[in-house]
């Protein structure tokens, strides 16, 4: 249920905006950075699942940045560059880049490469995830993913529909990250909203209704929610910490 969070790094404002919007339209959370300082600030601010890193960043070099990041962590990195000769590609792979995409590129091909790198990165982790993550605690509540059970702070069980349970999992996997309605819709199984599944206003209303139903189950005052809050101009955010525990 976790929505991949991508970071687009390019010193050209128009390219950053175009790629960020394209990735958001295809179901990702996408943010932009212009240089290494902004990369590190974004990574400190929250989870980053993949970096699209341009090689030529004004006075900075993307290959060198990739080498420094790789020495510290294993976040997937795709280098993007107009420099596409074999020795230039090899320089990227040698410092630990997961892929190298030459400019100009077909956006759909880039999307396929992004998904392939994310899939490779998650394969080994996904097996561990299925074994270990079963219990989530948030705002005094608990959700047992194995049993699909929700318990209130007072210890009584709250019944959720399949759609409400799926929505809760999306928020539990992305705490403190404002999610747009389109991102929530894309993360639900088979775009499961309980209403219109098309793009635009209809699907947004369906998400609003689904969030409203979930609030009525887990908020003490659904009209003034303290956990599942509205992120003005964006969508919704789970505004409490989430702790993950192994099953008993």
Question: How would you explain this protein's 3D organization?
Answer:
With 248 residues, this protein is an alpha/beta fold. It has two domains: 5-128, Response regulator (Rossmann fold); 133-245, Winged helix-like DNA-binding domain superfamily/Winged helix DNA-binding domain (Arc Repressor Mutant, subunit A, Orthogonal Bundle). The chain has helices at residues 13-25, 36-45, 62-72, 86-94, 107-132, 162-173, 181-187, 201-218; strands at 5-9, 29-33, 50-54, 56-57, 60-61, 77-81, 99-102, 135-138, 141-144, 149-151, 157-158, 179-180, 228-231, 235-238, 242-245. The chain has a five-stranded parallel sheet, with helices on both faces. It starts with a strand and ends with a strand. Residues 124-132 and 195-201 have low confidence and may be disordered.
């Amino acid at each position: 249920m976790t929505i991949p969070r991508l970071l687009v790094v390019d010193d050209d404002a128009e390219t950053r905006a175009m790629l960020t919007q394209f990735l958001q339209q295809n179901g990702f959370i996408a943010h932009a950075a212009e240089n290494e300082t902004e990369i590190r600030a974004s990574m400190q601010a929250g989870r980053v699942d993949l970096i699209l890193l341009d090689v030529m960043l004004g006075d900075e070099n993307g290959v060198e940045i990739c080498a420094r990041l790789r020495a510290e962590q294993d976040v997937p990195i795709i280098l993007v560059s107009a420099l596409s000769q074999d020795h230039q590609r090899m320089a990227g792979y040698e410092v630990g880049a997961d892929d190298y995409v030459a400019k100009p590129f077909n956006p759909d091909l880039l999307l396929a490469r992004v998904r392939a790198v994310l899939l490779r990165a998650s394969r080994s982790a996904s097996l561990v995830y299925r074994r270990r993550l079963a219990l989530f605690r948030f705002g005094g509540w608990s959700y047992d993913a194995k049993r699909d059970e929700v318990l209130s702070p007072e210890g009584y069980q709250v019944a959720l529909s399949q759609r409400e349970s799926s929505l809760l999992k999306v928020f539990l996997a992305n705490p403190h990250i404002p999610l747009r309605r389109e991102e929530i819709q894309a993360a639900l199984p088979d775009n499961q909203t309980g209403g219109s599944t098309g793009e635009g206003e209809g699907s947004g209303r369906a998400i609003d209704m689904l969030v409203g139903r979930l609030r009525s189950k887990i908020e003490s005052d659904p009209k003034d929610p303290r956990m599942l809050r509205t992120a003005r101009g964006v969508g919704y955010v789970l505004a409490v910490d989430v702790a993950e525990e192994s099953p008993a």
